[in-house]
Design a protein that fits this description.
This protein is an all-alpha fold. It contains 3 helices and no strands.
């Protein structure tokens, strides 16, 4: 079992403000998504996705 730690101690030991860490994580996530969107061949066709989810009309 993981030992209990005080959340304030965790923030103090990371050295960076949580907002800055979140902003960096979010920017990296968006950049990965944009890079993935460039490879159109790897994407699932919309018609296939709708059919598999049972959402086609």
């Amino acid at each position: 079992m993981k030992p209990m730690t005080d959340p304030a101690e965790e923030v103090a030991t990371t050295g960076e403000a949580p907002e800055r860490e979140h902003d960096a994580w979010l920017r990296a996530k968006v950049e990965r998504g944009l890079a993935q969107a460039q490879d159109r061949d790897a994407m699932i066709p919309a018609a296939q996705l709708l059919r598999e989810l049972g959402l086609e009309r």
